[in-house]
Each structure stands twice: as structure tokens, then as C-alpha cells.
Amino acid sequence: LNTVFVSATIGTNPCARSNGGCQQLCFHLGSGRRTCSCAHGHLAEDGFACERYEGYLLYSERTLLKSIHLSDESDLNSPVQPFERPAYFKNVIALTFDYRQKTGGGTNRIFFSDIHFGNIQMINDDWTGRSVIAENVGSVEGLAYHRAWDTLYWTSSTTSSITRHSVDQSRPGSFSREAVVTLSEDDHPHVLALNECQNLMFWTNWNEQRPSIMRSTLAGNNMKVIVSTDILTPNGLTIDHKAEKIYFSDGSLGTIERCDYDGLHRYVSMTNMRIPYVCRS
């Protein structure tokens, strides 16, 4: 790290005027030369502007939202600038995403639950446009977004229920805090995943006596248990839509398994894992 006094630099520093034309970072190479770089995003073909990455991994550190690259581990600059705002983020647990980069003006929408505030919030991934979607939702540990309906689904272990709620309440046919699944007080729905095309919803149930993986339609009909044996604390859950399989992790058994949508043809993909909490595809 060097301290540079522009007025005392010998020769012309092209970064001294208008940041050298660079959108984010300008580095003086000496002899009147400079190069542009990006703290977040990647350098465009023109060598000046910074463009957003097509994809990245978003995660929560409770009070902080951060991102890492999906493929280039050597790039230590995060794809999206980390965001921390104690007034909004105290204990962020569940996250889901609406990819709108090519159709929604260049930004994507992030939905998250904060169990400290007991609400579900939305914010763009350039950290603008924050709003509260739902208040008094209890302990939400599972959150999924139905893009065609612009609707959020969430689990609440507080009320042993799964609820859906449309983001845009002015939209025709919107849902308003509709509880589609109501379970017994011994049940604790944890994480969930949606198959929009086949009208299916899957979730893990942390019932202490009868842990399971369950499924129903997106309206909560035809509810059934599809996995109930050799399972203790099913943490993560995701769908392989092409192969029509679900993958789930068990924090107590340290395994990741897959099975058909009806729970048949179970196969242990990984064993001896250290508390696998999350599965995503």
C-alpha cells in the first residue's frame, strides 16, 4: 500500500483527472500510462467500464450479506460489494433470489428473513430499493421464490406452517399471507424448494419424534411424507429439475442423499460430512 501525492508525482498521472476515465479503479503505471480495474464486477471490453457478473454465490453472515465467485477462486474481489446495515440486518437466516439482470434494469432482487426483526425483506443487489415484504412472520428458516407468480413461500417453525405471499400486492390474483400448509405443533418445517413447472413443493420437517421430508402441491394439497426412515435432522434441500430428483442433507448423519420425487430410489451421495446445513442447485 503506497501513499501517492498527485501534485508531487513526477510526470503526468493520467488517473489524476476524471479518474483516468475508469469507472471504479485507476492505476498509474508510470510514463503517462494507466490501467483500469474493478473492485466489484469485471472490466468491460472498452477497458474503462465495470460490468456485473452473470452469476455468483450469495450468503449471509447474520449481519452481513456477502458474495463469492462461482468459478474463479483466485479472484478475491467479491462479485457484489458486501452490505452491512445494522438497522436492517440483525440475524439474517433464509435467502432467496430473483434473477432479473437481463430483464429488470440490471439489478437482481434478494429476499431474506431476519429472525431478530421477525420479518421478510427485499433489496436489490446494488443495495437500493430495500422494503419490508411481511412483518410478524416468526422464525423463518426456509424461503423460496416463485418467479412466474412473483410470490414468496416461507416456512415458520413458530407457527408450524408454510405461507405464500405475493410481492406485488396490486397484481391480479395475488396471494396475501395465505397459509397453504398447517402442521401439528410438534412439526417444524425447516427448508423448502419449489418445482414451479410440476406444481410441487418439498420441505424438511424437524419433528423430534418423526423427522421427515414432505411434499405437496403449491397450494398445499395432496400433502404426504416421502422420506421418514434413516433420517434425523434434514437441513438442506434442493431439486435437480432435469433429473427429477431431490437432494437433501442430514446434519446429524453427516450425509447428502438423493431420491425420486416420491422418495423412492434413495442413494447416499456423500458421507462423513461435517454438519452439511445447506443444499442448493
TrEMBL record:
Q: Which GO terms describe its molecular function?
A: Wnt receptor activity; Wnt-protein binding
Which residue range or ranges hold the LRP2 EGF-like domain? 12-51
InterPro entries the record matches: 6-blade_b-propeller_TolB-like (IPR011042), Cueball_EGF_LRP_Nidogen (IPR050778), EGF_LRP2 (IPR056588), LDLR_classB_rpt (IPR000033)
Cite the Gene3D superfamilies for this sequence.
Answer: Laminin, TolB, C-terminal domain
Biological process annotations from GO: canonical Wnt signaling pathway; cell differentiation
On whether Glycoprotein is a keyword of this UniProt record, the answer is: yes
Q: Does this UniProt record's set of keywords contain Signal?
A: yes
Alphabetical list of PROSITE patterns matching this protein: LDLRB
Q: Name one GO cellular component term.
A: plasma membrane
Q: Chief location of this protein?
A: membrane
LDL-receptor class B-type repeats, residues:
199-243
Looking at the Swiss-Prot or TrEMBL record, what is one Pfam family this protein matches?
A: EGF_LRP2
Q: Which superkingdom is the protein from?
A: Eukaryota
Task: Specify the species.
Answer: Oncorhynchus mykiss
Return the protein name: LRP2 EGF-like domain-containing protein
Subcellular location field: Cell membrane
Membrane topology label: Single-pass type I membrane protein
Q: Which UniProt keywords apply?
A: Cell membrane, Differentiation, Disulfide bond, Glycoprotein, Membrane, Signal
